[in-house]
């Protein structure tokens, strides 16, 4: 099926369904000779896995990655890196009531419109379970980027009406994973957690926003026409389940500014390099990185599955009442932080390799 591969030179292909025997992927184009920290990859998975935070689903998956190819004694061979994670806590029977019913807000009906068949067990391939494979690929890509001094960090900046008001320059993203809600400010994190628990108690759900920063970024990455760096970042983020919006730098706020206000302020650094002070462009100009931090935001919708009854229709178009039950996140945003980081790493690793062929 098309659409299961991401990237041009550094490529990730994923496979598997939410309630199948396993999910996994193949990383192709990873340079040889990279000494992989496999435990660091596992740590990334542990941050995303079901049950990693009490604010999420009660499904428990160990998500222990099994490496199948492409690595010898922890060093990449340059050949495809195959991996998988086995599904061990899938309760397919919990979804029997969905076999002939379309869940509001989900991909049930559109998937069936496209393929004429769907896996009703937890959404099958459309489930966010697939994002575990992206985290593995992104964790490997992160280690490629580390050789160039590039760091990628994301955090929760909004849950429902609760927003992080601290400027990005004053944040300590290293403390993000100290909270269950993945927000680096303890006071805001506490209010976010309370909002999630309140929504859960009412059988409802919340959306939110994840902010991200790429530091140590070199200038010159990105293609100037169709594969602009921020365009590929946008595609990567919008491919994540439940994502409805993406903005880089000043984003939508730029629409209400004058050019005299929005233009970045250039200065010459101590070594004669050009520096950008205001960085309203978010580190990307003309689709190409300018060497400043890349800053962007990703908006997530509320989870569509509610723990309350909803009106919907079945395959015959008859009105039915869908009972709210199952194991679901009341807010996906906390567990999506490592997914945003992973997709960012995949984009940057791909463009880093592409840049090597841009000039002699």
At CATH level 2, the architecture is 4-Layer Sandwich
- Please give the largest β-sheet: 5 strands, antiparallel
Specify the CATH homologous superfamily: Chorismate synthase AroC
Could you say what the CATH topology is called? Answer: Chorismate synthase, AroC fold
Name the structural class: alpha+beta
Notable characteristics:
7 helices, single chain, globular, Chorismate synthase, AroC fold, alpha+beta, 24% helix, 360 residues, five-stranded antiparallel β-sheet
Q: What can you see in these coordinates?
A:
This protein has 7 helices and 18 strands. The protein has helices at residues 38-48, 108-115, 131-146, 186-201, 229-238, 259-262, 333-355; strands at 5-6, 11-16, 22-28, 66-67, 71-72, 75-76, 81-86, 151-159, 162-163, 208-215, 243-248, 266-268, 274-276, 284-285, 288-289, 294-300, 310-313, 319-322. α1 crosses α3, α1 packs antiparallel against α7 (333-355) and α5 (229-238) runs antiparallel to α7. A hairpin with a 2-residue loop joins β8 (151-159) and β9 (162-163). It has a single domain (5-355), classed as Chorismate synthase, AroC fold (4-Layer Sandwich), CATH 3.60.150. The protein starts with a strand and ends in a 5-residue tail after the last helix. With 360 residues, it is an alpha+beta fold.
């Amino acid at each position: 099926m098309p659409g299961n591969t991401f990237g041009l030179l550094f490529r990730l292909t994923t496979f598997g369904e939410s309630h199948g025997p396993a999910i996994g992927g193949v990383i192709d184009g990873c340079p040889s000779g990279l000494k992989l920290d496999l435990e660091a990859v596992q740590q990334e998975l542990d941050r995303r896995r079901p049950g990693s935070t009490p604010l999420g689903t009660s499904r428990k998956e160990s998500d222990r990655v099994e490496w199948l190819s492409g690595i010898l004694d922890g060093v990449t061979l340059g050949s495809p890196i195959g991996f998988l994670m086995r599904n061990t806590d899938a309760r397919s029977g919990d979804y029997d009531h969905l076999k002939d019913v379309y869940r509001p807000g989900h991909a049930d009906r559109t998937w069936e419109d496209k393929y004429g068949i769907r896996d009703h067990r937890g959404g099958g391939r459309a489930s966010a379970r697939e994002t575990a494979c992206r985290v593995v690929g992104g964790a490997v890509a992160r280690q490629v980027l580390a050789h160039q001094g590039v760091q990628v960090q994301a955090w929760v900046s909004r849950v429902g009406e609760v927003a992080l008001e601290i400027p990005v320059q004053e944040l300590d993203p290293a403390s993000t994973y100290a909270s269950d809600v993945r927000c680096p400010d303890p006071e805001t994190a506490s209010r976010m957690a309370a909002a999630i628990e309140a929504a859960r108690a009412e059988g409802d759900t919340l959306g939110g926003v994840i902010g991200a920063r790429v530091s140590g970024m070199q200038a010159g990455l990105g293609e100037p026409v169709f594969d602009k760096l921020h365009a590929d970042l946008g595609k990567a983020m919008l491919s994540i389940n439940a994502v409805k919006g993406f903005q880089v730098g000043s984003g939508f706020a730029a629409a209400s500014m004058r050019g005299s206000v929005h233009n970045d302020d250039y200065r010459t650094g101590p070594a004669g390099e050009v520096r950008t002070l205001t960085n309203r462009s978010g580190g990307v100009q003309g689709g190409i990185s300018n060497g400043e931090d890349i800053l962007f935001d990703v908006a997530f919708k509320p989870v569509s599955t509610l723990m309350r009854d909803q009106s919907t229709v079945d395959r015959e178009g008859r009105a039915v009442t869908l009972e709210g039950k199952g194991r679901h996140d009341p807010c996906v945003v906390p567990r999506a932080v490592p997914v945003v980081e992973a997709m960012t790493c995949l984009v940057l690793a791909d463009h880093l390799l592409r840049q090597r062929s841009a000039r002699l």
